[in-house]
Amino acid sequence: MKGNIKPWPAVRQRCMTAYNRKAFGNNIQTAREMKGLSQSRLAEILQVGRNFVCNWESGFSRPDFKMIPEICRVLNIPIQSFYGWPCSKTDMQQEEILFLRDYMDLDGEDQKLISSVMRQMLTLELNAAHDLCRKNFVKVPQYDSEDYFRERHGNHLRWIRRRREQKKPDFLVTLSGSGLSPYYDDNDELVGRRTGEIADGQFGLVLVDEDLAVLRRTGDVMTGGAGTEQVPYSDRSRMEIVGVITGRLEPKDFPDENERLLLGNVLRGAG
Question: May I ask the CATH class of domain 139-253?
Fold first, then answer.
């Protein structure tokens, strides 16, 4: 039986593609369309292949750091705006403008005092944010067939939001294909707990012929949906039960961009 679990490199690439499109691709596409340029024309001006621009906007790759100033010049957008940063007073809140005016009116010593207080406040705020991330997120192993078979399934860890009403999952898998529709579909992120038994009607993560698969127990057989091979539930010479599926994750269950940065600092021991 062929497994229906996406390998970790494919999962990582999908996550990176979504991030690149949100962080870079959407900005480039919006600015290009406002300038009335096609992808081919922008690529010609930048002296790169058309597929470069297409890949940037789709999220399959990101612009080289050295190219960003030229991209911004051609599209007539400030570099700060390209990254989503405030680039002029008109991009700031009125309260922020008034604060800067008051700050500039202070003498040097008072400015140093205000700066020192602000640094202390930012440090406290950052530490509090780190603590909140530790409290609200847990690291869960991402399983795939290759890593599981090689017994390296603890190496790929992903942060997910802690659910107070549930225990921490033992594993996370990304489904490949739509064979389990209408219950689960392609790219669904499923979590579960380790166990050696699956009740009738439950979905389980099993190792069959050295491939991981999510199968449903229906009576005395395990099946991956219509048209797929059925494996007798009692055939433990061919099938190893890894665990039972306990839920499906939604995008909100994963950290957003700011939370991901903070969690990266937590992994490095910051805070």
Answer: mainly beta
d(CA 204, CA 216): 6
Which residue from 177, 179, 157 is spatially nearest to 168, judged by alpha carbons? 157
- Alpha carbon of residue 170 to chain centroid: 19
Which residues, other chains included, contact 18 with Cβ-Cβ below 8 Å and sequence gap of 6+? 59
Q: Record the tokens describing residue 142, joined without a space.
A: 């991402």
Angle between helices 26-34 and 50-58 (to 10 degrees): 120
Other beta carbons less than 10 A from residue 62's beta carbon: 18
State both tokens at 93. 């809140």
Contact 161, 253 (CB under 8 A): yes
pTM: 0.62
Determine the Cα–Cα distance for residues 143 and 158; give it in Å rounded to an integer. 10
Provide the 3-class DSSP secondary structure of residue 113: helix
- Domain 17-82: give its CATH architecture: Orthogonal Bundle (1.10)
| Residue boundaries of the structural domains of the chain | 17-82, 90-136, 139-253
Mean pLDDT estimate for the chain: 82
pLDDT (tens digit per residue) in 124-169: 766 776 677 778 888 898 888 766 655 555 568 888 988 766 788 9
